[in-house]
Amino acid sequence: MTTLIAFLAALALLIAVHEWGHYRVARACGVRVLRFSIGFGRVLWRRVGRDGTEFTLSALPLGGYVRMLDERDGPVPPQERGQAFNQRPLRQRAAIVAAGPAANWILAIVLFALVSMLGTEAPKALLGTPPAGSLADRAGLHAGDWVRAVSDDGQQWQDIASLPDLLAAVVRAQSLGEAVHLSVTDAQGHGARSVRLATDQFAGRVPDARMAQDVGLSPWAQPLVRQVAAGGAGAAAGLQAGDRVLLIDGQVVPDAGFLRDAIRRAHDGEQPRTLTLRIERAGQALELSALPRLVNEAGHRVARLEIGVGTPPERVFVSYGLGESLWRGVEQSWDMATTTVRLLGRMLVGEASVKNLSGPLTIADYAGQSAQAGLAPYLDFLAKISMSLAVLNLLPLPMLDGGHLMYHLFEGLTGRPVSEWWQQQLQRAGALILLLMMALALSNDVARFAGWH
In this entry, which stretches build a coiled coil (predicted)? Predict the structure, then answer.
């Protein structure tokens, strides 16, 4: 129920803001608005405003529209021709069309700024031991490294406040087929150095648990046994919650990441390898032998002791003042817009996977998760969806605002509007493309929830 409410609330807000942008600029340009509708289909609620606009809520909440007086839709009384959309100057018609995406963009900036001002607690970008062979391991990262900034080119740096900021920058670089540079110090902030994380090697891959393992960035945590599954390999070995693992096969265990990786690799082909563990329990050192079980994980065989390891990572509270928050909102929205456009371009030429497209099921799932996590995560979710809606609507497809802007650009360059015949053909093509995109996004949703991706 939380997921449904959060999803519907997000839809209502983002659609209302988008259509409000069209409505306000239309009224400012002297265009008469006949109807402002949230949703399609049967009208559930209706009110007529003082300017004669009919405001409605309709049964199908998957969009909305602003219907304006327009001679192309039917006869217009001579005394009202001056209020018709098609009679307004080209610059005004273009402004009215662009106002919807612009309203979503502005909302995204405001919401990103609010999240920055409210502040959030997040894991510190203090890294644990990377898995052997991962990108982080090959880049020379070690347990206790603290990532302070990231860069696309190693020249211009952006500060990193928390681990989620770092992971977002890494996913962004990977999706664009680029490497990312990290500015790193030790846990005390000394010994600064720069490393290059070769995320460009994973261009086209869908970010998932397997890719996260292959990248190898995880928070530092103590090598404590947090929980032991009843009847599992760890329980059979005598491990108990609260045990600190000191050595594994004679190697010092510096953190939970090292312990996890050593356990995962404890097999020779299809045969598990017995591990010798030296642990500390209630101040006493004990030695145990553990035979892990082999399981399939994303097509790979890994060893498991069926235990949970690690302590909660060190967390930091991140917040900013009004001015800095607004600037961060502008930067985040612009960065998201450019990343989205570049990713769509890469998908179009086959350099990125179309599995990156998400549909309503994934969005609803994220809405529920973020709402349960708190106000700031939900506002961040709304900002990202609002920005996505702005970019989507600016795509040059005839069914979208971007397509209408292309019509106006053609008119501005040639001095004549696009003919009705061409508009009809382009509308059909645009509708087909949108339907294919929606079907692909929905199929990606089903595949994710079914575990096929």
Answer: none
